[in-house]
């Protein structure tokens, strides 16, 4: 594989990260910008391409293969610079065409699926960590991090050859470094600055309790639902009094349609031990005022219902007797005297 061919292989992500801004923003946790290009090659002339941009877990960009246009999923996804996007769209369309020729030259076998991912992670103090990796047929192919190319054992001789040429050509190594460290960090800062109203918002969670089928008949599975919160970090725990229960099982955070999050946290407990449990929720939007939901078992509700029935039934019978005797008395008073 020649150095020029390798440069063509890297162009898509270099182009995708060629837009930027000199904006600097303050962050309190690491933030990642990643561009992913997935390509399926069926033969020398046909294939499909999926391109997307991600800000942590949030997809911000897509690619419309029919129109050859970048999809901005949010107005602020353009960052602070927008005049270069048409140039980028034209570059991507040209690269898609040349991609098929390059893959043929590289002697990859069809059907071939490759994924290229390139981006950066911005830490507090504007410390940048860049990354670039390639997978082939679902397995690691090579990665580039800390100015070093590492072939994967699964990549075989092709991956070793590519890394060897990167080491032998400082221009390629320098180009990768510049884009995953310098350019990417400027893009990320621009997007964070343009989208700060959306990205820094606080959405309070809505919480409720329920039960779910338990794997064991003698156990009760309690479920604490937490939904509609943003940002993503949230602390949820089943409690007995002030004691955290390590048996708490936390699911994965799932995205809602409005870019907020949903979380399901469960606890398997013996039915007789369910009373006195609570679910505690901590989130940045709550300003230190935790949400605490107390579990009240159906057994407690049934006992209360029995007591209410035991009280209400005699009262109802007594009221009926009073009404009946009253009606009889009034009837006897109103009856005419038929005796002389």
Automatic annotation (TrEMBL):
CDD domains: IgC1_CD1
GO biological process, any: adaptive immune response
Compartments where found: Endomembrane system; Endosome
UniProt KW keywords: Adaptive immunity, Disulfide bond, Endosome, Glycoprotein, Immunity, Immunoglobulin domain, Membrane, Signal, Transmembrane, Transmembrane helix
GO MF terms held by the record: endogenous lipid antigen binding; exogenous lipid antigen binding; lipopeptide binding
PROSITE patterns for this protein: IG_LIKE
Ig-like domain mapped to chain residues: 205-285
Pfam families, sorted: C1-set, MHC_I_3
GO cellular component term, pick one: extracellular space
Topology term for the membrane: Single-pass type I membrane protein
Residues spanning the signal sequence: 1-18
Membrane-spanning segments: 304-325
Superkingdom of origin organism: Eukaryota
Protein known as: T-cell surface glycoprotein CD1a-like
Organism whose genome encodes this protein: Octodon degus
């Amino acid at each position: 594989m020649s150095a020029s061919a390798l440069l063509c292989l890297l162009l898509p992500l270099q182009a995708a990260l060629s837009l930027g801004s000199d904006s600097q923003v303050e962050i309190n946790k690491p933030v990642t910008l990643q561009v992913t290009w997935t390509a399926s090659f069926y033969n020398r002339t046909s294939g499909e391409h999926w391109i997307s941009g991600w800000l942590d877990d949030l997809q911000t960009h897509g690619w419309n293969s029919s129109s050859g246009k970048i999809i901005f999923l949010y107005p602020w996804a353009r960052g602070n610079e927008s005049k270069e996007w048409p140039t980028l769209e034209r570059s991507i369309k040209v690269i898609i065409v040349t991609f098929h020729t390059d893959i043929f030259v590289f002697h990859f076998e069809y059907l071939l699926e490759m994924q290229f991912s390139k981006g950066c992670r911005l830490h507090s103090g504007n410390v940048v960590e860049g990354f670039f990796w390639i997978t082939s047929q679902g397995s690691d192919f090579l990665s580039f991090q800390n100015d070093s190319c590492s072939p994967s054992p699964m990549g075989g001789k092709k991956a070793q050859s590519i890394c060897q040429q990167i080491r032998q050509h400082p221009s390629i190594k320098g180009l990768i470094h510049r884009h995953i460290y310098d350019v990417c960090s400027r893009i990320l800062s621009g997007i964070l600055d343009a989208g700060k109203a959306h990205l820094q918002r606080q959405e309070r969670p809505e919480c409720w309790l329920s039960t779910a089928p338990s794997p064991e008949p003698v156990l009760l599975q309690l479920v604490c639902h937490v939904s509609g919160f943003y940002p993503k970090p949230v602390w949820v725990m089943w409690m007995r009094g002030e004691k955290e229960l390590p048996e708490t099982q936390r699911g994965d955070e799932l995205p809602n349609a409005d870019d907020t999050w949903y979380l399901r946290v469960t606890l398997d407990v013996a039915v007789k031990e369910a009373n006195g449990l609570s679910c505690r929720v901590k989130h940045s939007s709550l300003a230190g005022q935790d949400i605490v939901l107390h579990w009240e078992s159906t057994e407690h509700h049934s006992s209360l219902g029995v007591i209410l029935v035991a009280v209400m039934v005699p009262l109802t019978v007594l009221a009926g007797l009073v009404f009946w005797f009253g009606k009889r008395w009034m009837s006897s008073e109103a009856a005419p005297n038929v005796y002389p």
